[in-house]
Amino acid sequence: MTELRRIFNYFTNNLDRISGYTLEHLILIVIAIALSVGLWVSLGILLRNNKKTADSVLGLGSFIMSVPSVAIYGILISIPGLGLSRQSAVIALVLYSMLPILRNVYVSLNEVDKSILEAARGMGMSERQILRKVQLPLALPVILAGVRVATVMMVGIATLAVYIGERNLGVLIEQGLKRSRSDMIIVGALLVTVFVLVIDFGIGWLEKTVVPKGIQSDEESKTKAKAGGEI
Amino acid sequence: MIKIEEVTKKYPGMVRPAVDKLSLNIEEGEICVFVGPSGCGKTTTLKMINLIIEPSGGKIFVNGENVLEQNPNELRKKIGYVIQKTGLFPHYSVFDNIAIVPNLLGWEEERVEKRVVELLKMMNLDPDENRDKFPKALSGGQSQRVGVARAMAADPPVMLMDEPFGAVDPITRNQLQNEFLKLQQKVKKTICFVTHDIDEAIKMGDKIAILDQGKLVQFDTPENILFNPANEFVEEFVGSDRSLKVLNLLRVTTVIRKNIKRVKEKAGIDEINKYFSHPEKNRILIENDEKEVVGYLAKEEYHKISTAKGWNKAIRIFPTSLNNHNTLKDAMSDMLQHNIAALPVMDDDDKFMGIVSFADIRSYIGEAYEENETEKDQDENEVL
Ligand SMILES: Nc1ncnc2c1ncn2[C@@H]1O[C@H](COP(=O)(O)OP(=O)(O)O)[C@@H](O)[C@H]1O
Ligand SMILES: [Mg+2]
Fold first, then answer.
1. Min CA distance, A215 vs chain B (Å)?
2. Which of A92, A157, B15, B116 is the most exposed place for a label (fewest CB within 10 A)?
3. What SS3 state is found at A37?
């Protein structure tokens, strides 16, 4: 009981600081996710018909994923011009999101039923029209699933960016560890979890809003999107 | 309308061409069916006409213009294309699917709207009920109907259909075939139709092109394919049950009997006796007070029933009716199903035309084959 009280007290006494950290966290994630989606979706579109290149780029993505995030931050700040800056944090997050987003874009664009593409071609649609009106809308659920995975991952990895100068929810955890303050750690961890849940919910809502009705979640398309996210 | 000249397609790495120096002409308003065993090159041939596959050699003219000299996307907007798996866009409503080509062509909204509704009606789909549905909510038959409607949306003079009715159950297939033939009488498109099913080829084709290993083996009318197969391959492909296949070819109108005497249910027995006393008059039609034909009376059955019990007992009520596009096979199958030896035939406006009977079908087929057999005998005599 006292422990709970301590956590609660810490939270209420430091509301200002905590909301500041949350805001910083949010800003970092929004910048990183916007850049990631723009970059990796475009690259996925460019590579969609080029299996060889796509395979090696995706291989690079898996490799990046396997490097510990602290090491990536370390490498980035050693690059002249980046250093201890928000750029370094953003670049690290964008690199981590490469595999989940790029892979889902590439796979989903290539998974569109051949007979649908043949019909589209047979009706005289150009390759661009086919991409815009057929492939991308049909790939959207799987792409969003990738974005969701990437975002959730980013929220966690962003906490470690406090080692390169970010002042976000990671501060609570880092400081808590340093000072053996379990109340700080728990508040930090809880807020990160809430963050993840909110993002999950937000993307779920986005899915309902932007995914075309004809392919929307009755159970079938939902399992498909999930499967896509886990490949 | 479609002229195929020495067209060849060799896929990289293949030893022999998938399509080998194919030449044929398809007249305007005709259905030409490409038929043959799996892998004989039907689909390849079809896809070369709208340049989805580029020929390795030869020329293809559609409406006098060499397709190879045209912009593929512009060409395709003028050629309807229907495939077995329909390829409907799952994220488009039925309406939007049908509107694809008109929208690509930049039609005005009102014109698109009018055309789509017209097409839905044409394909026997209720526009209000179906226009906003998504493909996943459609049955197999409905999907194919939408697929055909979509291909016809911009009223292209030429249509390519690759096993369009291949993925539905036999009853639905038969229904779709009949509807399509009826529609074709009105719209008179020039159609290339691919199937591996010889029965379907016989039923749908004005002309049939039989392919074997990329080569054209016989290009002829269904009658000639059945009665004068060009070689053993065709004979075998058509099968030993040729006489049954003839049933699929001929329409009920070939054996229909019109102008049969009609009487009211309450008619006097003398009137019937007098009519049946004529040796060639075997049937009388029974009509109700609204002058609609409801059944018939056969002479044999009539004589079996004693007059004391009244002759009405011998009346056979028609449980169903045929339409004038039905084949003899449809007729036979309905008769067997309903256990009745004759059925009425209605025209497109659902007006009574006449009746078709089991006996008439049998004698007609018998005669057709006798004629053919004697012809064959003569041929053989000439050779000797
Ligand atoms: N894209 C392709 N690449 C290589 N070979 C192909 C290709 N498409 C078809 N073929 C081959 O060409 C032949 C004819 O194929 P197809 O026209 O599809 O036959 P059908 O439609 O009569 O069944 C087959 O042997 C098939 O394996
Ligand atoms: Mg085929």
1. 6
2. B15
3. helix
Tally of domains in chain A: 1
- Residue at token pair 């896809």: B47
**E runs forming strands in chain B:** 2-9, 19-26, 31-35, 57-62, 65-66, 79-83, 158-162, 190-195, 207-212, 215-220, 262-264, 283-287, 293-298, 316-317, 322-323, 342-346, 352-357
Residue A231, in any domain of the structure: no
Query: What interface predicted TM-score (ipTM) does this complex get?
Result: 0.85
B44 close to ligand 1 (CB < 6 Angstrom): yes
- What's the pLDDT tens digit per position in A36-91? 999 999 999 999 999 999 999 999 999 999 999 889 999 999 988 888 889 999 99
Instruction: Identify whether A185 is part of a domain.
Output: yes
Of A119, A138, A214, the CB nearest to B81: A119
Interface contact B83-A120, CB threshold 8 A: no
Domain holding A169, by residue range, is: 2-225
List, as ranges, residues 100-119 from B with C-beta within 8 Å of A: 100-101, 104
CATH number, domain containing residue A96: 1.10.3720.10
- Tell me if A70 is assigned to some domain: yes
**pTM reported for the whole predicted model:** 0.80
